[in-house]
Each structure stands twice: as C-alpha cells, then as structure tokens.
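<goal> How does this chain fold?
<body> The protein record starts here
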Amino acid sequence: MNSNFYKYVLDGVKDGVYFVEKDRKISFWNKSAENITGFKTSEVVGKFCYDNILNHVDEEGTQLCKNGCPLHKTLQDGKERSNTVYFHHKDGHRVESQVFIMPIYENGEIIGAVETFSQLIDEENLIKDMEKLKSLAYYDQLTSLPNRRYLDDQIAIKFKEVDLMKSSFAVAIIDVDHFKNFNDTYGHDIGDKVLQMLAKLFKHAVRGDDFVGRWGGEEFVAVLSNVDHKQLETILNRLRMLVETSSLRISDEEISVTISIGSTIVESKDSAETIFKRADNMLYKAKENGRNRVEIS
C-alpha cells in the first residue's frame, strides 16, 4: 500500500492529524488540520512544532510549545497522551481542542509521533480515529493480519526479552506454493480470497502467545514463543496440514493450496538478520525437497 493511499484515507478523517519526526519536524498535515486551524499544508510541513505555528496554551495560559509540550514528552517516554489545549487559529482567535498523541515505532525505537485534534471535544470519535490510524500503521489491509512493520517491531521486542528474561522464540517463514501459477490460472481476485482464507486459518490455529503476520505478497511470518525443536515441528506441521485440507469453493470448484515453511529457533548471538536468513534457507530447502513440507534448522 503506497503513501498516496494513506494520505487519501487520512485526508478523509474528520479530525486534524499530523505527524512529527523525532526532531519534532512536521512531515504530514491532513485536510482537516487545514480546515480546523486555517493553516495550509504548505505553511506547516517542513517546519517544527516548536515554531509556535499553533502556539498551544493550557487553561492557565502556559506556552506549551516552549514549556511542557505533551507531544515532546511522548517522543521522549513513548506514552500515549490526551490533553485539552487552546491553539491559535490563523485568523487570530483561540480554539479549544482535545488532542491525542501516540508514538510511532520502527524496529522497537521511537521515530516520531502522530497527533489528532478536534475543534470540539469528542473523545469517542478521537478514539475511533486513533484506532483507524493504528490499523493503517500496523495491519495489512487485505488480510487484517499484522504487517511487516508490526512484525519488525515485535521481533525487536522479542530480542530484548531474550536478553532480559532469558526467554526464547522461533521465526517461521510461510510461503504459498506455486502462488504465481495459481494467480495466473484463477486471477488475482481469487488469489486475494485465498490469502484472506489463510489469514483466518493462521489467526485461529496458533497459540495465544504466538502470532502470524503478512510479510508481503504470498509470504507470511510466524513468531512462536518458548518452543523447543519438537514443539515447533508439531505446531508448524499442524499449520501445514490445516492449509492442505482447507479449500475455497468458487462456483462448483473446490480450490486449495499448500504451503512450505522454513523455521529456526533464536540462538544467543542472533540478530533479526541472522534468524531470518536461517529461516529463509530452511524455506528454500522445503521447496527443493518437494514443497508442502516443514524444514527446521
């Protein structure tokens, strides 16, 4: 999904939405932000929130952009915040606004923040808008599974747990066998339905502490906590079997696919790069050995 799609969606949100980078430079300003504040995107994007564009004050008149900015605090500690503030409209008057601030993570590190604000206090709609933003940022729109950004963040967290708690986890790369040929035969619409079917299957087939996300195309990634080699083999072969015995009815035809899985368990000196490389090598081995199988290092 490209950036134009996200801009289109966010421009349709009724509340003002803007993104700032770690240094508080404003990188996005939606249509509602323009309408609510009077400031056009061209007047805001590229500037810093502490440039006093909106010149936020609280009920005591404290200049928040210079002293006590809630957005700046979220960038520092990663906590979500909700505040009532008064911003300075381009026409000169003050407007009461409810703001909600959420950090943006990449690979477990804060890279910026998103703030939504409305002219009238409407917490219910603010929450709905923030949930929509979270969904766009962290979930694949076709399958509703966690997307690659979410998986990267969670794997970074898993590595921190390995260091702090001496826990363990496994990564499995799941690939739909001959999916290009499948799409060529049945069309991409049917291919999308198959991916949605698999997503539902994966979501209900893994354990409570495990999760599966869409890595891209016909590839999925499973992250499984605290498993040994035998447990991992059992779980993944069950997934493989469930896919093999599932089918999608299109007209009078039962359509099914199979999957190949390559997996590995984290080792003490691993990084995200090394664990994915081993899992990918195992996936290649599964395909070389005939597909519809599981290979674990």
Observations:
- The first helix runs from residue 3 to 11.
- The chain is about 40% helix and 25% strand.
- The two ends are 33 Å apart (CA to CA).
- The chain has a mean pLDDT of 88.
